[in-house]
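PROTEIN–LIGAND DATA SHEET

This sheet pairs a single protein chain with one bound small molecule, zinc ion, given as SMILES. Inputs appear in the order they were entered. The predicted three-dimensional arrangement of chain and ligand is reported afterwards as a token string under its own label.
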Amino acid sequence: MLPEIERLLLLQDRDKKARSLRGELKTVPLERKSLEEKLSAAKQLSQDTHHRQRAAEVEQARLENEIRSRKEQIAKYETQKMQTRKNEEYQALNHSIAHVRGEISGIEDRQLQLMETLDELKPQVAEADRAAAAAAELVQRQLTDLEKKSEQLTTQLAELDASREKFTASLDEDLLDDYKRLFTTKNEAVVALRNEVCSGCHMKVTVATVTAVKARKSIVHCEQCNRILYPD
Ligand SMILES: [Zn+2]
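PREDICTION REPORTED AS:
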């Protein structure tokens, strides 16, 4: 094979590795963000469950107070009943007492529902706390792994970049420019010619091109895509 082609293929191999490393590095911030979102969602769920529990407890205390004040009201009516001598007033007080008792009974129903809610919430709170703690641990581990991976990729890339000159040093500048342009725009600059077909654009090349490539004496481009061809 033409020595330039050999050098270009080595360079292309290096450049492909570097491109792939850069691609992987690019995904690191996104991965980090997605992990942090996972953690914050688990924390949020745990907080929400705690808030619901707290709200139910506050409501429970409020209902307790409501019952207490209504019982005091009933006690007042009872006292008034004992003091009154008018039958009409007596009946009205009885009526009021019955009404307040009805209210108490309604509040007690709500208390029962609230107790059921609190009973249901208790395991949910425990589960959300457990899930949040597990997520924190897992995400922390994954973040550490991700940082490690990112560091490794950065090191590998730095090493590859440092070695690039070794690959380009002996190449003609115009050829190198050609190569760079093709590698950037067409993904691959140097491709094999297989059965008279360019493996870059998959088009059949002319007989003259096939002959020139096989002669291994000069740099030959595919007449369709302009990529540099080498004999397979
Ligand atoms: Zn081609």
